[in-house]
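A.,

Following up on our hallway conversation. Structure tokens first:
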């Protein structure tokens, strides 16, 4: 049996329409603020997120707290997973045991101050034919709002585990 999801915005996410009208309408707005950048704090306007941010040890910082790349990886994995569940359900595939991992890389191009982001998404769709799973992953990538936001700006690698 396929997973059923009937939350707000499903049709908008899958078809690019909202309420039968062409285009998009705002369903939700998240607001966050940063003080101190990579060595500071991020908070949301509702107070549900209030995190100290630190530069990771790999970049010469103290580590010991989340960093922007980790937050982006977590958000992308969750959003992609939702799109995967929706697309799989439409294909009659049960994605209950699916898993999504996102790796966000901070990359430097030549100059010291020229940085870009790279993303790798690995999807686990156990017990699904690999060809069908591959099609579902590609469709989820086409429909995921985060994937679309990054389109043309960020290199995103898709992997089926």
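Then the amino acids I'd put at each of the 161 positions:
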């Amino acid at each position: 049996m396929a997973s059923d999801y009937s939350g707000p915005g499903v049709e908008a996410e899958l078809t690019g329409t909202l309420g039968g009208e062409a285009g998009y309408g705002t369903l939700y707005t998240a607001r966050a603020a940063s003080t101190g950048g990579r060595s500071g704090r991020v908070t949301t306007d509702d107070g549900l997120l209030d995190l100290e941010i630190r530069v990771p040890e790999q970049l010469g910082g103290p580590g010991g707290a989340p960093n922007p790349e980790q937050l982006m990886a977590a958000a992308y994995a969750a959003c992609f997973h939702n799109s995967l569940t929706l697309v799989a359900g439409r294909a009659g595939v049960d994605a209950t045991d699916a898993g999504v991992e996102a790796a966000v890389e901070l990359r430097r191009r030549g100059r010291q101050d020229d940085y870009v982001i790279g993303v790798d998404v690995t999807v686990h769709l156990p017990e699904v034919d690999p060809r069908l799973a591959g099609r579902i992953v590609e469709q989820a990538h086409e429909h995921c709002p985060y994937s679309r936001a990054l389109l043309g700006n960020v290199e995103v690698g898709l992997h089926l585990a």
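The chain has four helices and eight strands. Curious whether your intuition agrees with the design.

B.
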